[in-house]
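Notes, p. 3: input format for complexes.
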Amino acid sequence: MINKIIIIIKLFFYKLTGNIAKNKEDYDVVSSTYDSYFTKLMGKHTLELLNKIEINPEDRVLDLACGTGFGSARIAEILDDRGSLVLVDQSEGMIGVARERLKKFTELNLEIHQSDVMKILEILPSGSFDVVFCGWAICYMNHPKFMAQISRILKQSGKVGIIDTRQKTEMSLMNAYERVILKDPSYIKKYLNISHLVDVDHIKELFTKNKLTVLESYEDSEPIPTESFQDILDWVEKSGISTDYVDVVDRKRYGEFRENIIAEINKDFSSGNYELARYYVAGVAYKSHK
Ligand SMILES: C[S@@+](CC[C@H](N)C(=O)[O-])C[C@H]1O[C@@H](n2cnc3c(N)ncnc32)[C@H](O)[C@@H]1O
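Output follows (290 residues plus S-adenosylmethionine):
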């Protein structure tokens, strides 16, 4: 109990003093393995959402936090050298993979920006995009400000598609993480600034509050294959899912922290007390207001 209070006070202090964990460098690190793990498992859901947006070949499309460009490449195929595509991501490593992937679309009107999403959104002209897509990254944004900007930059009848992890995902991993920091709160050195969507109603509310009309919204989960303990470790360390949590912890003690996490996960895995699935929420909406 006392450690829980210590953690709450520490986090409150770090938030107040702006000592916020960053994930940019950690995304650089996983950029070479991200597609073999995260995209391999979750990419089909990204494609399912892109299908629902019904992008047209002449469209001007913005892919926010494009990562390794898996979704961007599908958009580029649909645009078929006719429309234009703008990609934004903060991570040099991730965007480097995207650049390589999109090299073959030589005729496409393509812009790639290594930048913070909010900084780019603020300078884009109003009513300038037919489609805005954001895959697996709204958790890093201030939701109200992010959606307000999207609503502003969309053309009349323009569409937005969003997919992201929702709260209570991969609970076995989250519980192991919590147990380790509860035992020793001194591991925590920064505030974790991510806001996962709560559920499907949450995404609908974000759309409607910004005068966007919901076309589709849904939630589901994808089981993570965990035949061996190594499968779990690979998912944790190579898919990018732990990027958000690395910088929260004292970097000098990260090796020791990692060993403790592994021991906790192993305990649950050996006792069969294990369920690992990525829960997600997605939605498509269009701009119906002037
Ligand atoms: C889980 S990956 C998703 C990548 C890609 N959209 C996909 O569908 O696979 C999250 C991405 O968001 C990027 N990101 C996080 N916060 C960002 C920010 N504030 N500005 C720009 N990119 C950001 C990361 O660099 C990373 O590439």
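The chain has one domain: 2-287.
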